[in-house]
């Protein structure tokens, strides 16, 4: 079993109470160093099932397993102190029945020390959310574009246009009424995001859903320029770390090939007992 959150960590009720106030800042993390980077800046850190695409090279989140989420959840737990930690329930781990959802969510909570789980779907998972939250597990919902349903959608298209808007409003309402403490709205038009945010009592967290939401979330590798497979329009690149890493690796390769690395500074003499600069290797 893993450690639980520190006593200063934000709680699900504290996040719910932020409805209509200062926007919630949320990012994903998948590793201990990644969690340490985002912790002090974020209200919510999500161990997203996007880990399958971002770190494991999968073509969608459909193949992500409970074991992967638990492994990455444990790693993130070690790096978090103040943000609320949420773990995504992967495809196939909650859809069968409310009992299946509770069993797997309880396992995720116990193993990772997460404070909440997130699951995708609207009206179709409302009964499950009611069952799980009534038994002590805080839940974040996720409606609009739900990536685990990519095969049903036939791609990652904008959702909620025309008559579909009413269904997404019903989905968000169902999730809120079932007891979720927040809901992610993914890739829907601004007017719909604004309407949902006005209509429901819990915070909306947008990704490609406009500033009308009560908060925002991005995949951290997307906004750092580390993940190049997709570049959705809703991602703002705050850094180009992938380009920086490429330049650094190219410079290393050139140095090795041209025998400029290792240089004198990196080479040990043969004097016995020589210790340089507090190194440990
Ligand atoms: O898996 C994920 O990263 C998500 C997003 C909402 C960021 O669900």
Per the CATH scheme, the topology name of the largest domain is: TIM Barrel
Alpha-carbon distance between the two ends: 32 Å
Helix percentage range:
25-40%
Number of strands: 8
Derived structural class: alpha/beta
Order of helices and strands: HEHEHHEHEHEHHEHEEHH
Portion in beta strands: 5-15%
Query: Which small compounds were modeled alongside the protein?
Result: 3-methyl-2-oxobutanoic acid
Q: How many helix segments?
A: 11
- Supply the CATH superfamily name of the largest domain: Phosphoenolpyruvate-binding domains
Give the CATH level 1 class of the largest domain. Alpha Beta
How is the largest sheet built, in terms of strand order?
1-2-3-4-5-6-7-8
- The outline comes out as globular
CATH architecture of the largest domain: Alpha-Beta Barrel
- Tell me which oligomeric state these chains represent: single chain
Spans where pLDDT lies below 50 across 5 or more residues: none
Query: Could you describe the largest sheet, including whether it forms a barrel?
Result: 8 strands, parallel, barrel
Overall pLDDT: 95
Structural domain tally: 2
Tell me about this structure.
- The structure is a single chain.
- Strand 1, helix 2 (32-39) and strand 2 form a beta-alpha-beta unit.
- The longest helix has 17 residues, at 241-257.
- The protein contains 11 helices and 8 strands.
- The model has no long low-confidence stretch (mean pLDDT 95).
- The chain has 2 domains: 12-237, Alpha-Beta Barrel (TIM Barrel), CATH 3.20.20; 241-268.
- It starts with 11 loop residues before the first helix and ends in a 24-residue tail after the last helix.
- With 281 residues, it is an alpha/beta fold.
- Strands 1-2-3-4-5-6-7-8 form an 8-stranded parallel β-barrel, surrounded by 6 helices.
- It has helices spanning 12-16, 32-39, 51-54, 66-77, 98-112, 126-134, 150-153, 164-177, 190-199, 220-223, 241-257; strands spanning 24-28, 44-47, 84-88, 116-118, 139-144, 182-186, 204-207, 215-218.
- The radius of gyration is 21 Å and the shape is globular.
- Bound molecules: 3-methyl-2-oxobutanoic acid (KIV).
- 3-methyl-2-oxobutanoic acid binds at residues 28, 46, 48-50, 88, 184, 186, 207, 217, 219.
């Amino acid at each position: 079993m893993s450690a639980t959150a520190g006593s200063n960590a934000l709680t699900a009720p504290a996040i719910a109470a932020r409805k209509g106030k200062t926007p919630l800042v949320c990012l994903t993390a998948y590793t201990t160093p990644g969690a340490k980077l985002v912790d002090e800046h974020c209200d919510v850190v999500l161990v997203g099932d996007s880990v399958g695409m971002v770190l494991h090279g999968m073509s969608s989140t459909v193949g992500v397993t409970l074991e992967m989420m638990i492994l990455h959840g444990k790693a993130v737990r070690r790096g978090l102190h103040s943000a609320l930690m949420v773990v995504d329930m992967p495809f196939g781990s909650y859809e069968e029945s409310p009992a299946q959802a509770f069993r797997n969510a309880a396992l995720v909570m116990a193993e990772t020390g997460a404070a909440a789980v997130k699951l995708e779907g609207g009206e179709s998972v409302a009964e499950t959310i009611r069952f799980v939250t009534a038994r002590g597990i805080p839940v974040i919902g996720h409606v609009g574009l739900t990536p685990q349903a990519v095969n049903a959608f036939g791609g990652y298209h904008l959702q909620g246009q025309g008559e579909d808007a009413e269904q997404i409003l019903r989905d968000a309402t169902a999730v809120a009424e079932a007891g979720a403490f927040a809901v992610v709205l993914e890739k829907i038009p601004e007017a719909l995001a604004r309407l949902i945010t006005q209509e429901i009592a819990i915070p909306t967290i947008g990704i490609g859903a406009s500033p009308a939401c009560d908060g925002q979330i991005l995949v951290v590798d997307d906004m750092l320029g580390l993940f190049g497979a997709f570049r959705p329009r809703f991602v703002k690149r705050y850094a180009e770390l992938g380009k920086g890493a490429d330049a650094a690796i190219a410079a290393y390769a050139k140095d090795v090939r041209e025998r400029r690395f290792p240089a004198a500074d990196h080479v040990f003499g043969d004097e016995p007992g020589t210790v340089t600069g507090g190194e440990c290797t």
